């Protein structure tokens, strides 16, 4: 790591500089295009529910430039870069510090003109998340986390919590396989209240805020999970895969997995999900 990072991973100066960069890029490239997209600004990637916009591409390009300048020697794994070249994912297994970037998490919601989208950034080194930034500009929410230093929402410490029925954000129905539907049926049969998620970053933020009890997800794209995994962990949450191991940002996880308000809740969710392999 460079001089910009201290012995704990990330210095206060770098934490603040990244927040400023994220705010600036989102203000320039994302917010002006919200509810103002032309047809030519929207493209389909792998299918009708997998969209990319000019805002996604321009924000990732700008963030790539600014983040690597803030931390010389670092590299970027961004959703759109991986879409163009899957080999970019291999950077997560290297020795260089890696910025994991989702320029617009919740692109479909963004295209529909809804406010449920966010920009996600995480700094990862040798598979370990060091810091994260979650920004929902229309909702006016900015959350940060620093390994071993806690999680904050607009400067206020975050802690997980909750009681009553188990409340979970779950995978979007349009992407579910029959086995995944069966696993979620088991959760609901056990009394869980499951709500489909269209923005993973905001789902993780709800867990960190104690507004919901956890997530039950079936995919491992690192740009969707890296920022939220650290944010929730620093707020007190636990992650577990279906094999009982913590979720690994670099991949190779047994799916599905959960991130839940505490270890006991995570084990309960995994026990119910265990039939989906």
TrEMBL record:
The keyword Nucleus does not apply. Keywords: Hydrolase, Magnesium, Metal-binding. The keyword Magnesium applies. Gene3D superfamilies: 3.40.190.80, Fructose-1,6-Bisphosphatase, subunit A, domain 1. Pfam families: Inositol_P (PF00459). InterPro entries: Inositol_monoP_metal-BS, Inositol_monophosphatase-like. This is Inositol monophosphatase.
């Amino acid at each position: 790591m460079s001089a910009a990072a201290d012995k704990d991973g990330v210095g206060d100066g770098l934490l603040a500089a990244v927040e400023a960069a994220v705010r600036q890029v989102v203000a320039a490239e994302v917010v002006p295009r919200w509810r103002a997209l032309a047809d030519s600004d929207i493209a389909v990637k792998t299918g009708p529910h997998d969209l990319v916009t000019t805002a996604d591409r321009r924000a990732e390009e700008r963030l790539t430039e600014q983040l690597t300048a803030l931390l010389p020697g670092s590299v970027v794994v961004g959703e759109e870069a991986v879409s163009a070249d899957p080999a970019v994912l291999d950077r997560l297994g290297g020795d260089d510090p890696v910025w994991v970037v989702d320029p617009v998490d919740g692109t479909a919601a963004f295209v529909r003109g809804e406010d449920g989208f966010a920009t996600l950034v995480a700094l990862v080194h040798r598979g370990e998340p060091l810091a994260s930034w979650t920004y929902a500009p229309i909702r006016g929410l900015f959350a940060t986390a620093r390994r071993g230093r806690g999680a904050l929402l607009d400067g206020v410490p975050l802690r997980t919590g909750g009681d009553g029925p188990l409340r979970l954000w779950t995978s979007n129905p349009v992407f579910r396989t029959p086995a995944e539907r069966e696993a979620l049926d088991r959760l609901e049969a056990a009394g869980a209240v499951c709500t489909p998620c269209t923005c993973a970053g905001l789902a993780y933020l709800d867990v960190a805020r104690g507004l919901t009890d956890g997530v039950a997800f079936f995919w491992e794209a690192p740009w969707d999970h890296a920022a939220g995994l650290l944010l929730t962990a620093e707020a007190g949450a636990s992650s577990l895969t279906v094999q009982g191991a913590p979720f690994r940002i670099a991949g190779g996880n047994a799916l599905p997995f959960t991130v839940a308000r505490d270890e006991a809740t995570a084990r309960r969710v995994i026990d119910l999900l265990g039939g989906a392999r």
